Amino acid sequence: MLPSIFGRGLFDDFGGFPFGEFNHHTTNLMKTDVKEKGSNYELTVDMPGIEKENVKAELKDGYLTISATSGYSNDDTDKDGRYIRRERHYGSYSRSFYVGDAVTQDEIKASFKNGTLKLTVPKKEEKQLSDNNNYIWID
C-alpha cells in the first residue's frame, strides 16, 4: 500500500499511526462556488470551523478579497497530567476575485451562517476604452 499525496496526509493510510488522526480542518477551508444568477454573481465560500468575527471581505481596486483566520487546539493529557498528544494550528487564509472597477462596496451583499459565507456581486459592464486606436505598427 502506497501513501496518498493528493489531499491527504502521509499517515492517513496507516490509520493515523503513529500520531493519531490527522485533522482535515484546513484542507476544506475556503472552497468557493461561483454561480451566475441573472444580473448577479453568487459566491458561496465554505469556511468550516471559522467564526463570523474572524472573516473579512474587502473591495479594493476591483478585487474582492475574502480573508479568514482560524485557530485549532487539541490538548489531551493522561490521568497524571502528562501529554499524550498536543496539537495546535493557527493560520490565515485569503482568496481574491476580480469583480471589476465598476462595482462598489455598497452593491455587494454578504451573509455568514453555519460556516458558509454567501456574497452577491452585481454584474457590471466594464467601461470600454475609446475607439481611438493609437497602435504602433510592428514589422
Which helices and strands, and how do they pair?
Layout: E1 31-37, E2 40-46, E3 55-60, E4 63-77, E5 83-98, E6 109-113, E7 116-122
Antiparallel strand pairs: 1-2, 2-7, 3-4, 4-5, 6-7
What class, by secondary structure content? mainly beta
Ranges where pLDDT stays below 50 over 5 or more residues in a row are 1-26
Instruction: Please tally the helical runs, counting DSSP H or I stretches of 4 or more residues.
Output: 0
The N- and C-terminal alpha carbons lie at a distance of: 60 Å
Residues in helices, as a percent range? under 10%
Give Rg in angstroms: 22 Å
Would you list the SSEs in sequence order as H and E? Answer: EEEEEEE
Q: Major sheet: order of its strands?
A: 1-2-7-6
Q: Beta-strand level of the residues, as a percent range?
A: over 45%
Biggest sheet, open or closed, and with what strands and sense? Answer: 4 strands, antiparallel
Mean pLDDT: 77
- DSSP strand count: 7
Q: What overall geometry do the principal axes of the alpha carbons give? A: elongated
Account of the 3D structure:
Helix content is 0%, strand content 45%. The strands form two sheets. The chain has a four-stranded antiparallel beta sheet, with no helix packed on it. Strands 3-4-5 form a three-stranded antiparallel beta sheet, with no helix packed on it. The chain contains no helices and seven strands. The model is unreliable at 1-26 (pLDDT under 50). It is mainly beta and 139 residues long.
Short précis:
0% of the residues lie in helices and 45% in strands. The protein has 139 residues and is mainly beta.
